[in-house]
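Action item from last week, closing it out:
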Amino acid sequence: MNNQRILSHFHESAELKIQSATVLAPHIAQAIEMMFLALSNGNKILVCGNGGSAADAQHFAAELVGRFERERFPLPAIALTTDTSILTAVANDYSYREIFSKQVQAFGQAGDILLAFSTSGNSGNVMAAIEAALEREMRVVALTGKGGGAIGKMLTDADVHICVPHDRTARIQEVHLVTIHCICDGIDVALFGGDVNE
């Protein structure tokens, strides 16, 4: 019984990834192009999310600042989830809704990109960060699920929405992880061309 439950997780995850690949590939390609152009122009990527999505934000920033699969110069990405003094000060003095938006206002500039994670598409502090980014003439790449929620309605035609076609948070996060790796690989290929093994 227990083994069957474990197998069902693997099968559901694999089936969703295959189903999502065709649906999401054009949007992921758009995100790669947008990020590559921004980085090429000296801009940076700010990243935010809550819980597991905060881990995804930090994972993405680490891949850019460090490396993904090949040696290269560091790329400017900042996870807005990591400075506990900023997070707790803003949450205490203002509200939890502003923990990311204050940082976008402080660090974001026109031409930068906000990579925003929200499995539900309804995270209030991520929505506030998107509002702040749009006010600063930044572009947004939003990774969501569950139909995209309110975030899907906030985005402009210049932004990219990567919405996983599923309602289960764990499955959405698993596709978000593959998406992160696709974006990192795409940026590396755009910078250097070819395959890492060539």
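Closing note: Strands lie at 45-48, 77-79, 113-117, 139-145, 160-164.
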